[in-house]
Each structure stands twice: as structure tokens, then as C-alpha cells.
Amino acid sequence: MAAESLTELRDWLFLLLLCLTLLAEMLELAAAAVAMEEGEEDFPCPSVCRCDEGFVYCNDRSLSMIPPLPLTATVLYLQSNRLANSGLPASLERSSSIRVVYLYANQLDEFPIHLPPSLRELHLQDNNIRTLPRTVLARLPLLERLHLDDNSISTVSIQERAFSGTRRLRLLFLSRNHLSSIPAGLPASLEELRLDDNRINTIPTHAFRGLASLRRLVLDGNLLANTRIADDTFSRLANLTELSLVRNALQAPPINLPSTHLMRLHLQDNGLIHVPRGTLDGMRRLQRLDLSGNNLTTLPRGLLRDTDGLELLLLRGNPWYCGCNLHWLHAWLYGRGAAVTVRGLTCHGPEAVRGQALRDLSGLMDQCEGPPGGVNSVGGRGGGVTSTTTFPPTQGSLFTLRAIRPGLVKPLPPGGEAGGHASHNALELTVKPLSADSVQVTWLCPRPAPSFRLSWLRLGSSAALGSITETLVPGERQQYLLTQLTPRSHYLICLLPLRSTSSHSGGSQRGQQQEKDTTDQSPVCSQIETGEALRPEGGNGGEDSDTEMAALPLAEIIGGATALVSLILIFGIFCWYGQRTGYVSGETDSYGVRGQRVVGKPYDDYVESGTKKDSSILEIRSPGFAMTPMTTHQPLQPKGGEDVTYVHTIFPSTHGNGTYRSNQSHNGIITQLGHTAGYGTNQGYREQGMIPDIDYSYT
């Protein structure tokens, strides 16, 4: 009874399982029917593509139409085909699983229309897209990365508020297009913007308004100049971490750069001639600064005072003048040590240090009096009293006036001396040479003056030649350093205090009164001679060295000519010897031990190269080897059971001792004991039928 109950229960369970299976099949068929009605039929992987889970690879297939794709596709690789706008099916925009589409390097001339709304990343670079319509971009509300490099997009072809529907866009690439200005209406969510290699020449104040999240801005290869960039253009980008302005037309860095979060600043390949002192103020997070490929000769003292986190400083491609003007930078480099990497700080002048790195000029920099500005000195171990000393300014190029006066005769004024010290009207002037091209000028003036006019003139053989260089020095200063002077030259250095009798007069009256005081007063002048230029150790100075230097070009010409003639003679001797050796060796058998050639026989190159039979392949030496003559028509019968080898000479000799000639009646093979048989012709033997008429030996 129990067995029947178990059997009945098993049958019911089997029937229930069968019903559940049928129900699952019906549900699957119903879902497939619904998908077919909605046009979302699940296709297998196209035969022309390759699928790997959600990745579909249809790139480089020369496709002009996108084939039906599986519903599980998430990333489509469709680049490097021949797809136009008509090649994108309408069913593509009904997909809800596609996240990334690669459509670069195709034949698109418009922004694609049928794109899935679930798209996060779209690559359309290297096409011919001309417009950016707002309606199409509005269908991509989830788009985060848009690559439009290498197209034909202009500023006027971007529709107004084109990016208003892409509120999640974080990265926008518009490099190498036809933009003439910054696109308007960029989304506030933008974090990276690339506009390099366009035609942008003006950036107004409102260009980056609302882009508080922007972190990386690239404007390389445009037409930007300082006069066409608004003062507050970049100050609105408070969260900017990288700014690149490479290959523009800047003469100085833009003012009011963002400083709070900036980490990388690229200014290379412009036309920078000056970097203001406060350009990098507050940039405590700056890690990389690139000033390569400009026209900078010096950097202002205090430029790097806030760049405590600087790790890489690129300065190559600039004509750096390594005088006392860079004393502060030399001290800063040694103070930072290995914490900062500096590349390209190579001196272009003065001539004595050309090609040397600034780090290697410690000896010359020590000659600059006074500690450089910005260098803190800590006194005592227990605690630290920090003081900053200002380094005396050097000869500047921005506030120096140069005038050529060929007709000027500058005599030594009253009170002037031809030494290093002069005084006149309680003004004492002291000059002291520091190096071959620099002179330290100090003065003491009991009466205060608003400013001083310092001038210097290089004296030559005629006082009427040369130019006066003048500069204005603030009244609180008492010393000045002249650099870039000519070594071994006489200079006349003059100092004149500029005073004004009335401090309440207008600007024009003040200038007239100041000019009157200048005319009434006489400058204090002193003459000085600069030292000799640095010479290598062991060199002779004086006129002997000058004579040697003058005679050096002639000596070089004579030495070069002598060396050239010697080389020609050596080469000629070598060629003559090689030709003679080759001629002699051509008349001698190259095989040496294989015998000598027949006298008068020409040298055969084909034999040497192995393309023609060699007549010397058979060597007969004695003792130990002999060839036995045979009678005419004697059959060659081996002895019983023996393996006999018969050797025929290829070319029997036609002359020589111990040989048989072709016109003799001997019937047999030559036998010779004691020396090697010579080689000649086998024509006689062929005529008598003694040997086969072939050119090989038989065994």
C-alpha cells in the first residue's frame, strides 16, 4: 500500500514539473513577441564584427552601415570605417544599454542623430562635422565626455545654448577646429576644456563665467596676446589646477592667474621677455612650471618665494644672462637641493660662462656682494631669528636709457678722479671692480635726494666714440651694480642727485624745476678699468696672449693644410702598394701548395669564385701514393673481392720532367714518384680514346 502511494506521488510531481517548464517556455515566447513588436529583437553578434560580452568590435571593417547589434552591447567600436549619417540606423537610439560609442575617423559631416540616450562617452574626432545643434545634444542628457577634435566646427556654427541639455558634461575636446573665440554657454559641470590649435585671438572677461568646476584648461597654439586677454579672465577659475598657454604670442604671463589650486603652468614657446615679480604669488601648490622656448634673460628676485611645492622647473631655450642678477636664483636652487628638478638653466652670457649651468657658478656668484634677496638666515641653534636681506639691484633693461652720441666729448668734470674714489659738493662716489664685466658703485650723500641719475661711458681711443648709458636710482639707495661691461676697458662713471625745490608744484612745473637743478649742479665722476676676462689655467696673459690669439687662425689654416696633404700622400702610397701587390699576386697561383700556374696563363677570376671548374683539385704527393701504367685496351678487372679505385688525371701536363705528353705512344696513366705532376691539356688523351671525353674524374 505504501509503495503505491509513493508511486502516485512521484507521478504528480513529474506532472507539476512538466507544467512549470511549459509555462516558462510560454513566457519566453511572449517576451520575444513583445520585443519584436517594439523593434528590439535580440540579434547575435554580427558576422563582420567580434563580440566579447558587452564589447562589440566593428572597427576597421570599411562599413557603410551599422549592422544589427546585440541587446547586451555596452561599448561599440565603430571607428575607421566609412560611416556617414545615413549609416546609423534609427533602432540605435532605442537601445538602453550602450554607454560608449567610438565613431572617429569616419565620414560624418553632421552631428549623429540616432544615438542612444544612455550614452556617457562619445568619440567623434577626425570627421568633418560643421555644426553643433542644440536639439541633438539635448537627447543625450547623460553624456559626460564629448570628443570633437579635428573637425570643422566654427564659433558661429555652435548653436546658442547648444550645451544646455548636457548638464553632466565633464570633458569637452574641441582641439584643431575653426574656433575664433571661446564657445558661449558651456555647462557649469565642465571640468576639462581643450581648445588648442584653433584661431582664438581674444578672451573677454565673461568667457569662463560660471565654470567654477573647471580644473584643466588648454589653449595651446592660438593667437592670444596680452593686449587681447582681459585682466580678470582667469581669476574666475578658482578651482583650476592646470593651465596651458603654449605656442601663443604672449610677452608676459597673463595677470591675475588663479593661485589657490594651480599645480601645473605651461608657458613655453611664446615670446616672453619679462615675468613680473608677483606672477606666482600665492601658488603654494604649484608643482610644474614650464618657461621653455622664450626670450627670457633673467627672472625677478622673489618670483619663487611662494612656490614651496615646486618640483619641476623647465627653463631651456632661453638666452639666460648669468650675472649677479641671478645670484638669488643660484642661492634658491642650493636651498631647495634635490627637492626641485631644474632643466635648461644654461648660461648664454657673459661669454666667459657661456654653455655652463647656473648651479656650477658658485665661485663667480660668491663675488656678488651681499646675500641675495629672499634667502633666510637662521641664527643660533635654539631658536631662530630670521632676517631677510635685500640684494642690491643690478643693471636693469626696463628702466635704462641708451643714447648714441657720436659727437659728444666727455671730459672729466671737476671733482672727478681717475681712480676708484671721487667727491664733490659733499657727495662721495666709490667704484670697485668685482669681475671682468661688473663694477660695484657706492656713494654717500649727506643731503637727501629723491633720486639719482647714474650714467657710465666706455672710453676708447677717442672720447667722441661710444654711448652713454643712464638709469634712475631711488633716493634711498646707496649702491648699484653695473654688469655686462666690456672686460679690460676704461669706464667713466658719473652720479648726479636730482632734487626739486618745490614739492607742491604741478607735474610740468616739477619737471622744469628738476631740469633746472640738474643743469645747475655738476655730477661726480670717477674712472675705473675693468679686469681681464676669465682664462683657462696655465694660459699666458698680456700682449703675448693677444698675439697668440691673433695668430691662431693662420696657424689653424697651415696646420689643416699640412694634415690634408699628409693624408693625401698616405692614401696614394697605400693605393700604389695595394695595386702593386695585387698585380704580383695575380701572376702567382693563389693556391700555393697546389703547384704553379703555367707561365703566360691569364689569371682566371671565375675559378676563384667557384663558378668554373678548377684544374688544381687533384693533388699527387709522394711518397705513399702511386699510379700504375696499364697496357692498351686492358680491361679493368678488380681483384677478387677487392674495392679498387682508379683515378684519372684531369689535365695531364704538356711539358715538364717525369710526365707523358699527348703526342707520345705510351698507353697508360702517368706514374710519378718524387714530385707533383704538372697540369696541362687532355686533348691528346681524348683523341687516342684513352679516357672519356668529359672534364671530371671518375672513381
From TrEMBL:
Short name of any one Pfam family annotated for the protein: LRR_8
UniProt keyword annotations, A-Z: Disulfide bond, Leucine-rich repeat, Membrane, Repeat, Signal, Transmembrane, Transmembrane helix
Record has Metal-binding as a keyword: no
PROSITE patterns: FN3 (PS50853), LRR (PS51450)
Coiled-coil blocks: none
Bias kind Low complexity: ranges: 502-512
Ranges for region Disordered: 501-524
Fibronectin type-III domain boundaries: 425-522
Any one annotated GO CC term: extracellular space
Signal peptide limits: 1-32
CDD domains, per database record: FN3
Residues spanning the membrane: 557-577
SUPFAM superfamilies reported for this sequence: Fibronectin type III (SSF49265), L domain-like (SSF52058)
PANTHER family: AGAP008170-PA, LEUCINE-RICH REPEAT TRANSMEMBRANE PROTEIN FLRT1
Protein name as catalogued: Fibronectin leucine rich transmembrane protein 1b
Organism the protein comes from: Oncorhynchus mykiss (Rainbow trout)
